[in-house]
Amino acid sequence: MQYFERARFELRGNNTVTLGLLGDLLAPCQRRPGRPPNAPPTGPVPEGNPSECNSIPNAVATGRVFPEVSAPGTTLGFEARNYVAGELVALWINLPNGTVRALPYQAVVESDGGVLIGFRTLATDPPGQYSLVGQGVKSGRIVLAPFRLQ
Q1: Per the confidence metrics, is the pTM higher than 0.90?
Q2: Which of these, 89, 147, 144, 98, lies nearest to 120 by C-alpha position?
Q3: What is the pLDDT of residues 20-48, one digit of tens each?
Q4: Fewer Cβ within 10 Å of end Cβ, the chain: N or C?
Q5: 122: Cα separation from own chain's centroid
């Protein structure tokens, strides 16, 4: 590894060199998203204003689609936790063929950090493994909730 003013070169294997960004490593805590529970940093954490650092909750958004198995053309539920209260959550479906379909609306997070919405699959959706993705517009937190159509 070789460090430069704004980046580092990392040798991978015998012939591959990749560029690592130092900004991601050295950014003050108030400029980084919160760390997931039970995942300590891999190195020293730069100092920052503690009051600003504590304003970023140390949480990971979690959620699920229910029921997990359903028929095409049915309404399913999505519930998630640990978003930022009041933020919007962008929603889309990952389809089995690798494409995505955006939902025509965004969810609004309740004061407890939770989201509960319904969404409908299409009657023409083929059987397979799907996932609903919810990404907090403000926090950037992502929930990937798998479900199956059959």
Answers
A1: no
A2: 147
A3: 655 555 555 545 555 554 455 555 544 44
A4: N
A5: 25
Tens digits of residue pLDDT in 74-86:
999 999 999 999 9
Same-domain check for residues 88 and 127? yes
Range of the domain at 124: 62-149
- For 19, what's the count of Cα atoms within 13 Å in the CB-facing half-sphere? 6
Cα distance between residue 59 and residue 49, in whole Å: 19
Q: For residues 74 and 118, is the Cβ–Cβ distance under 8 A?
A: no
- Token pair of 146 as six digits: 């798998």
Looking at the structure, tell me whether residues 70 and 31 fall in a common domain.
no
71 and 107 fall within a common domain: yes
> Are 86 and 32 found together in one domain?
no
Number of domains in the chain: 2
- 23 exposed, middle or buried (CB, 10 Å; 0-12, 13-18, 19+)? exposed
The candidate with the shortest Cα–Cα distance to 150, out of 70, 65, 64, is 70
